[in-house]
C-alpha cells in the first residue's frame, strides 16, 4: 500500500480555551474537510497526540504548509448506485458530489447529502472531473491512518 508521504502543515491554536488544544501552541495539521457544507473542519494532532477532526479551521493560524495538505482541491463524482436512495443522508443515484480525496484503502472522501464528508467505495461513483488527480492515489490522511504513536 502507498504510504502518506506529505509533510503535515504547522498550525498555531488561536481559538478559545480548550481541553484539546493550548493557546499559542503549534500543532501538525493533515486535512481540511467539509463540515455542514463548508470546508472548515481541520484534522489536527491534539494535546493527547491523537488526530482529531471537526476542529474549526478559524481556531488556527497556518504557520507553514509546504506540501499544501490544507488545499481546497476537489473532484466531482456522480453516484451510480441506488443503494442509498431511501436514506435521508448518504447518496442519491445520478447526483454529483464533491470528493476531496482518497484514503490508503482506496475509499473516496465525499461530501454527501448530509453536507459532511464520509468515506465511500469508489465503485459507487463515476468520476466527472479530477483536475488535481485526487482519486487515483492516496491524497488524504485520515485519523485511522496514524494514531498517538505515529511519527507522521
Q: What class, by secondary structure content?
A: mainly beta
Helix content range: under 10%
Radius of gyration: 16 Å
The major sheet is characterized as: 5 strands, antiparallel
Keywords:
152 residues; mainly beta; five-stranded antiparallel β-sheet; disordered C terminus
Describe this structure in words.
A hairpin with a 5-residue loop joins strand 8 (108-111) and strand 9 (117-120). The chain contains no helices and ten strands. The chain is elongated, with a radius of gyration of 16 Å. The protein has 152 residues and is mainly beta.
What is this structure, in a nutshell?
The protein has no helices and 10 strands. The protein has strands at residues 9-13, 26-35, 38-45, 51-56, 60-64, 75-79, 96-102, 108-111, 117-120, 125-129.
How are the SSEs placed, and which strands pair?
Layout lengths: L8 E5 L12 E10 L2 E8 L5 E6 L3 E5 L10 E5 L16 E7 L5 E4 L5 E4 L4 E5 L23
Amino acid at each position: 500500500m502507498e504510504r502518506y508521504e506529505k509533510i503535515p502543515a504547522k498550525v498555531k491554536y488561536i481559538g478559545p480555551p480548550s481541553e484539546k488544544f493550548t493557546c499559542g501552541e503549534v500543532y501538525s495539521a493533515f486535512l481540511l474537510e467539509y463540515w455542514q457544507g463548508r470546508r472548515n473542519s481541520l484534522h489536527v494532532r491534539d494535546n493527547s497526540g491523537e488526530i482529531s477532526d471537526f476542529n474549526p479551521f478559524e481556531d488556527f493560524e497556518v504557520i507553514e504548509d509546504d506540501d499544501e495538505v490544507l488545499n481546497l482541491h476537489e473532484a466531482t463524482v456522480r453516484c451510480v448506485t441506488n443503494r442509498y436512495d431511501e436514506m435521508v443522508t448518504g447518496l442519491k443515484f445520478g447526483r454529483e458530489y464533491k470528493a476531496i480525496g482518497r484514503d490508503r484503502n482506496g475509499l473516496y472522501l465525499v461530501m454527501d447529502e448530509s453536507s459532511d464528508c464520509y468515506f465511500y467505495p469508489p465503485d459507487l461513483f463515476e468520476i466527472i472531473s479530477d483536475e488535481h488527480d485526487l482519486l487515483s492515489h492516496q491524497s488524504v490522511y485520515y485519523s485511522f491512518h496514524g494514531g498517538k504513536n505515529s511519527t507522521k
